[in-house]
Amino acid sequence: MLSSRRNDAVKKSTMSAGNSIAVPEAAIWLGVLGFLPFGGFALAAAFLGEQYGGRAMAALLAYGAVILSFLGGIHWGAAIASDPGNGALPRRLVVSVAPSLVAWAGLLLPLRVGLLVLAAGFAAILYVDIRATRAGEMPSWYPRLRRPLSIAVLAALLLSIFAGPVGMSRFLLKIAQQALSVAEPMRPVRAVQGWS
Fold it and tell me: Global pTM?
């Protein structure tokens, strides 16, 4: 009974839609630090050669799968901590397991396809986060933390997909070829006989 009242108080103080509590500083720092591997691996995939860029893409895929699973786990924890007994718990638990299944599927696919699956998973869980917050199931500050982090993660995943080792190499090669063709020195025009 005491535990139930305490859970209700916690839910009312942190998960009401009208409550505009600031994003906890620790969550901001941990979120930003959690993004660093995404950014680092994406840049490595884009700018290192094919051998190391491919490894960076594989590391990005593995790290992204772990983080996507973690985001689902947040929903699992919120669901079991605040179950009001209204029958919504099974739906919330199913939604919380879906990111892990999407992440696992992404790991089984070729790198670029797997990264694309992860990008879709991150976009979907952001949508779920926003809806859950509006329904009072997550803290009101949660989307303010997740939205910029999700956008940054999506940008990193898309960079590695489209500008990964082979993609960026081809892109840079085309730029170099175009620059060389434009910078080609003008050939001297031969003087027409009699026009000197």
Answer: 0.74
